[in-house]
Amino acid sequence: MSLHIYDSVKKEKVEFNSIIPNVAKIYVCGPTVYDDSHLGHARSAIAFDLLHRVLKANDYEVIMTKNFTDIDDKIIKKMNESNKSLEEITTTYINTYKADMKALNILDNTIEPKATENLEIMKDMISNLISKDIAYKTSDSVYFDTSKDNSYGTLSHKINDENSQARVEVNVEKRNPSDFALWKFAKTNDVSFEAPFGLGRPGWHIECSAMIEKHLAYKNTEFQIDIHGGGADLLFPHHENEAAQTRCSSGQNLAKYWMHNGFVNIDGEKMSKSLGNSFFLKDVLKSYSGEVVRFYLLSSSYR
């Protein structure tokens, strides 16, 4: 029996044919661990857990990978506010996230890489891009030159959208407005790491490309993995930038299929901590069992 999935890039249902027969390598963008999980995190986790279970039921060996972003502006802000170390904060919220996922009966991930444990592969990718003049240094960061990637924008088709472009940081030293940071040079009271191109920390986008390269990527194939997943808000700029980095660094396409879950909406707006309209999953689970939450979130299309 053939299996069909909705591909976010092609915007249609397509037949799923894995790169290696009966093996499915999946990477889903995980949480930035600076606070407790909200219902939007549960929606994504449950959607891709269903995919995981369907593939297993169809006799696939599933390598399900979900990362933890454990270095980020929000985490550094939390460190300064709480006087706690990076490790204290991230360990606390990784553990609470895992407890919430267990309550929702989410299958265990095969691999759960942390950004801070994969810095060397990030540095290698950035050095490679610099050597090709696809990445360049400014006073504050190492940037990816989007004009060097002829396929940039083909994933999301949003590169010429002014509202989308507003999400990419502005810097007069950048070669192109759409260029994005691969490595941010250290500031005062910043968390930083040594690198050949300067003391600093990775940009968000390079983390996922590097972790896929290290833990999952097939070599000498057109695509590195079978399915890349995440929330619909990640298609641009995050996944667009991931795809560009991987293409230019390895000569491969990142994923054969792209899948994105829709949002949980509150009064017509996306649930988000930044909008102040989110509520914690741990509070929901005080009143309802994990199975009830699963049923509720699966009662409409995952998209």
Structure description:
- The chain has 303 residues and is α/β, with parallel strands linked by helices.
- It contains nine helices and twelve strands.
- About 2% of the residues have low confidence.
Number of helices: 9
Radius of gyration: 19 Å
Report the biggest beta sheet as strand number plus sense, adding barrel if it closes: 4 strands, parallel
Question: What is the overall shape?
Answer: globular
The total of beta strands comes to 12
User: Order of SSEs, N→C?
Assistant: EEEHEHHHEEHEEHEHEEEHH
Average pLDDT for all residues: 93
Strand percentage = 15-25%
SS-based structural class?
alpha/beta
| Uncertain residue ranges | 161-166
Q: Distance between termini?
A: 23 Å
Helix amount: 25-40%
Q: Give the strand line-up of the largest sheet.
A: 4-3-9-10
Briefly summarize what is shown.
The chain has about 300 residues and is an alpha/beta fold.
Topology:
Blueprint: E1 4-7, E2 12-15, E3 23-28, H1 39-57, E4 61-66, H2 73-82, H3 86-103, H4 119-131, E5 135-137, E6 141-144, H5 162-165, E7 180-185, E8 200-202, H6 204-215, E9 223-231, H7 235-250, E10 253-261, E11 265-266, E12 269-270, H8 281-287, H9 290-297
Parallel strand pairs: 3-4, 3-9, 9-10
Antiparallel strand pairs: 1-2, 5-6, 6-7, 7-8, 11-12
Helix pairs in contact: 4-6, 6-7
